[in-house]
Each structure stands twice: as C-alpha cells, then as structure tokens.
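=== How it folds ===
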Amino acid sequence: QKWKFGFTNLLGSEAEGIKHLRDLVKFGKDSAFETEDVINYAQKLESVKVKASEIKDMLLGIGNAAAGAGNFDLTPQAVKAVYQMLSKNKIGAEEMTQQLAEVIPNPIVL
C-alpha cells in the first residue's frame, strides 16, 4: 500500500503508479534483484528525477557492472552513490569514481 501511494505521488496518477509498481514487481521476479529492493531503489531514484521508464535499464546497468566486478552484493551502495550524486544535480568524473570505486572498479564506463 505504501508503495502504491509513493508511486502515485511520483508519477501523478494512481493508474500510472499501479502500472509502474506491477512492472517493477515483475522485473524483480525476473531479475537477480530482490523485488523489495527493486521497488525501494526505484522510489529513491525517481525521487531525484530519474524517469520511471529508465529505472530498469539503470538498475540493470548498475547490477551488471557490480556483478562483473564480483560485487553484486554491494549493489545497494552503488544505488546509494548514484542517488547522492543525482541529488546534487551535478556529477563530476572524480566524484563518480570516488563514490562508486569500491563497488565498480572503473565506474566511468557506465
């Protein structure tokens, strides 16, 4: 219920919020992510203006990069770093490297 309310607020309509939530639940079930994590990551990233239509691709990119570095379990830290950078509205290459280096050794290629 809280997720439905959250996505309704983020997307501006209950119908869009429910549709998006269902899509995220399906993505969570079909991917290596836990469904609850997908929904929480989406809410966090959408709150800093990531478009709902970009969430799955962004999470796949972050997850694949972390997994490729052998650090999929550190994906929450990578999502948090991306969230923090986007909340500042300006991302520098040096800051990106510092924020993500522990999870993704060469984050500039993202």
